[in-house]
What we know:
There is one protein chain. By secondary structure, this protein is of the alpha/beta class. It has helices at 8-16, 20-37, 50-57, 92-97, 104-116, 148-165, 175-182, 188-191, 210-214, 219-239, and strands spanning 76-77, 83-87, 123-127, 134-137, 140-143, 169-173, 195-196, 203-207. Helix content is 46%, strand content 13%. The strands form 2 sheets. The protein has a 6-stranded mixed β-sheet with strand order 1-3-2-6-8-7, with helices on both faces. A two-stranded antiparallel ribbon has the order 4-5. Helix 5 (104-116) crosses helix 10 (219-239) and helix 6 crosses helix 7 (175-182). It is globular and about 85 Å long. The relative contact order is 0.13. The structure holds uracil and iron/sulfur cluster. Uracil binds next to helix 5.
Amino acid sequence: MKINHQLFPLVLFLYSCRDIPIFLGAHLNSMAKRSKHDPANPLLPLHGNLEDLKKAAKNCQACDLWKLGTQTVFGEGAPNAKIMFVGEQPGDQEDLEGRPFVGPAGKLLDRALEDAGIDRKKVYVTNAVKHFKWEPRGKRRIHKKPNAVEIAACRPWLDAEIAALRPKIIVLLGATAAQSLLGRDFRVTQHRGEFLQSELASHVMATVHPSSILRAPDEQARHDAMKQFITDLKKIARVL
Length: 240
Ligand code: URA
Ligand code: SF4
């Protein structure tokens, strides 16, 4: 058979184009998904870094909680952090300061991290829901649990933080964070401290929320809960 060598470049070109429709289709598909399912979509930068995301989240109104909280409390920490901690929502002090984990639960987390040998400056902390939900009791603002609609509305921000940081380890603190990322059927009580199979990161673990340790009924219970929490964090320190 006679081969026409002049056709080689054309064949090569056509060969190199073979994946373009698939690539384009997948890309458009993912954009369609995003615009359909992301309530926070109009503000969410498609490929934002953490700073871009934080700025965009300031104006989020994707659920009603923006009316209740003082400001959006976005995640913060080392931009190259290997560990991301996900809490529930900002508390009273976080709401006023605009920074996550600066109140009593944050102080307890700081102490536990130190005891586990994890450098607090090298981690990233954020929350499943980024506005403070509360109800008045006298002069105080009492924390109220976010519901499934609010958790789902805020999830795109958390997804975007994970995509921007790409942490090696994600630690879910308490049921709300676990519900947001692992689904409503996940039980922290049954699986705390285990490394879970997940596409979110190479190591994913759920454990208790530091506030639950603060709420322990007596000194002994608090001591035991703290010890168990530090045991979980030490497992994380080992895979760092
Ligand atoms: N509790 C949380 O879940 N997150 C905070 O930022 C503070 C307290
Ligand atoms: Fe937006 Fe989340 Fe605040 Fe709701 S809680 S308004 S989704 S940032």
